[in-house]
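Methods — Computational structure assignment.
A single polypeptide chain was analysed. Its primary sequence is given first, followed by the predicted tertiary structure written as structure tokens.
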Amino acid sequence: MGGISHGRNEAAFIQGVCAIVSKGNWRTLSIPHVSDRFTTSNVHQILLQLSADTALSWSFFKWAQSLPHYHHSLPTNFTMVHLLTRSRRFQEARNLLQKFAFKGFLSSPTVLSSLLSGHGDQDSNSQILSWLVFIYSRSNKTQDAIQILELMKARGLRLDPHACSALLSALAKARLTATAWNVYDDIVRMGVVANVHILNVMIHVCFKSGDTEKAEKLVSEMDGKVVRPDLFTYNTLISLYCKNGMHYEALAVQERMGKEGIHPDIVTYNSLIYGFCKEGRMREASRLFREIKGAAPNQVTYTTLIDGYCRVNDLDEGLRLREEMEAKGMYPGVATYNAIIRKLCEEGKMRAVNDLLNEMDERRVQPDNVTCNTLINAYCKRGDMDFAWKLRNKMLESGLVLDQFTYKALIHGSCKVQELDEAKEVLLDMLDAGFAPNYSTCSWLVDSYCSLNNVEAVLSIPDEIAHRGLSVDKSLYRALIRRLCKRGLVDFAQKAFNKMLEKGLLGDSLVYASLAYAYLSTGKRIAACEILNEMVKKQLMITAKIYKTLCASLANDSGILDLLWSHAIERGLIARNVYKLLQEAKLSSQNDTLNVSSPF
């Protein structure tokens, strides 16, 4: 008692407090000259002294927290979590950890290592760090979660399967699929046995990246581990196959579900219907819709069908389904309205569009980016830029953010009405917002300037962008060069290429191949060969992707393309997988010739 009253000795003060707490004399601790002496350092020591009795430590911890001048430090909080975890009071430990998980750089390896150094219980450390991984993952702080995972690997700690699932799910949600696979490989090496939940998340990762091959390997892994796939597994697989247009495989999964006694739900049917609608196979989609068993069609089902019919130019059927949907008590959401509005805009029925917009307003269905972009695009195509700009301004006033589709529509519309200064301003705004213009966007500008015999203005675009303090990358030059080459303006394309090199940006295979094509199309065979020889020196190859890109954009000049492929083959510039594509194109061409010459 005297040590507490006069307290010149810190160790005696700690011992005295422990004795008082053990006796339950809390009033003594509340005396001002006693309570004022508590610091994070001596509180931490008191918790350690009382650690044999977790209930007593927890009571003291909460009491200290009530003191007006005192706040627990990271070490005191962490020690209390450790004591609660060791005593298997998991709920209280997790709740406390949640409160300070985002304070004091807890996820920093240095800070966390320092905290762990005072606690040697590997099981408790594994549990606490697993909770932290879970907490950070659920808060979409995947980098913090991965840092903790790395520390656990280094210390030989075990990661809880729930934490694994949470982290992998967060990475899938953020479309960080490559990182998700790296994490998955890490946790397997750490000895985590992948259960159905972890494997399901990884199949979802495959869905995000469109990788059917890896998804099939995961299902095989499930079969090998006698981990039974569940409804989520099969629904994700079906969605993946339908996304990739693999209807046969999707239906095979549905058949396997039936054999295993797993009944499809509305998510299963919606995915299959979406797959048919995406390919324009509305007869199959409608048949499947009528065959739905054990599940009730929902708003997603009807919206998918309505969108599908609108895309195959059957607006009447889409509107009929909308009436059926409402008759069943399901009101259209913004996605339903968007599907119908898009079709009405395509048909130029703007009065009907306005009626739908008024209906949305009455029903308090808020337009989204898709609604606004559809309308802006429609008015841009009609050349009504005044109304398109009004819509753009209303979009901003309502709190929506302009995206790449908004900028593209405004650039296209401005080019259409020859307002090229306005189009260029939108391009600059687009770049400033972090969106890179694609080939089509640059093509509109190039074509518009060329129609006004002002090709020099095209060459000045990168300089104007740089003058605004914005970054000019290779993709912009590539798009400009490709369009100039397509228009046969190879001298201007070469000028753009030279300016690109002056800025330290290196040409790629697509740029060189486009220039070679342009020189061949203008009869400058020697210049084309020089360009191709440069590709040889720089070890650049024409890949399948580049081959398909050039074939798609230059389809009307197949003779020149054949000449380009011939020169490229002579120099060994064609990738292996392109030879198969060339052979397929040759056979297709021969078949077309036979069909044309046949009298039947």
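Note: The first helix runs from residue 2 to 6.
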